[in-house]
Amino acid sequence: xxxxxxxxxxxxxxxxNALRESEDAHQRQRILMLLLRNDGKTxxxxxxxxxxxxxxxxxxxxxGNPDDLESFKDQRSKGNxxxxxxxxxxxxxxxxxxxxSELGYEFGRWSTARLALHLEQETQIKLSSxxxxxxxxxxxxxxxxxxxxxxxxxxxxxxxxxxxxxxxxLAATAASWEQLQVWFWDESGFSLRVIRxxxxxxxxxxxxxxxxxxxxxxxxxxxxRYHDRHQQCYFIEQGNGDSFYENMLKLxxxxxxxxxxxxxxxxEFEESEMRIVIVLDNASYHKKQEVIARLSEECPNxxxxxxxxxxxxxxxxxxxxxxCKEFIAHRLFQSVEELRELLDRLLNQGELKIKxxxxxxxxGNGLLAS
Length: 370
Prior knowledge:
With about 375 residues, the chain is of the alpha/beta class.
C-alpha cells in the first residue's frame, strides 16, 4: 500500500494536468484515486468520496503508474475486447443453426469456443466463449444432451445375475488384490471433431445430427484396474482380433512384471493362484474362438467375463472414456499427433481427473466405483 506523499512534484503536476484535460472519465477517476491517496486519504475515505468499490481503489492505487498515464486507461479499448453488436448477435444466431460442415469445418458440433472463433474471423469482434454462451442463453438457447437409452434392449434378469457375480469378484479383489485383479476393458475412438453429444439449439428442440467422426481419429484400447484405478491404454490402428490379442498379451505381461517385482519367481506365474478377470463387451473380435483359444493357452491366468448385451453401464472404464472426451470436447487441435499426445498424458500419465462417484447414464456405473 503506497504511503502518503509518495509522488514527486513532477508526477503530481503531470497527473493534475491529465485530470483537467483527459476526455476519458474512467482515466480521470483513477488518477484522482492516486492523487487522493498521495494526500493521505485512506482507501475507505476515497471510496466514500468517489463512490466506487474498495477493490477498484485498492487496485489503481497500487497498479496505476504515475509515470505512464496510459496505465490508467482501460486496456480493453486497445482492441482485445469488442462489444457484441446487433449485427454480431444476428449472425451468431444464423451460424448456430447451421451445421459446421456447411461452413467447411471438419468437426460436427458447435461449442461456444468455436462459435466465438468463427464469429471473430467473420466480424473482427473478439468475444470470449463465456460471453457467447451468455448471448445464446439470453436468446433462449441451451446446451442440451441428445436422447440416448438402451433400456428397451436390455435383459433385466441377465443384468441382475451378472451384477451379483461381478460385485462378489470386486469384493474379493478389494480384500486380496494380490491374488485377484479385476480389469474393465474396452476400446474407444477420439476425434478432432467435437465428440460430446451436447449441442447448441433452441430450447424445446433437439437437432438430428450426424455422428460420423471418421476423419482425424485416434483409436485406443485399454483397461482399468478396479482396486487402484490404474489405467493401461494402448493406441491401435483399429479394433480387431489381432489388436485385441496383442494387447491382452501386453496387459498379461504388465501384471506378470508387477507380480515378479514383489519377489516372486517368473516361471511360477502361470502356475500361481493369481487370477486376472477381464470384464469386456460382446464385440465380435472379443469372442473369436481362435483368439480365446490362444489366450487360454498362452495366458492361463486370464479370465474373460462378457457383459450382458447392451450393458456398457457395468463397464467402469466407460467413465474414463466419458471423462476424457468431456475434457477434450472444446479444445482445438492442429493435428492428430497433438490429439494423440494429449490422450497419452491423460490416459497413461495420470493427468486425467475422474469424478468416480458421478453416475452417467450408459457411461459406466457409479455404484461400482464407490
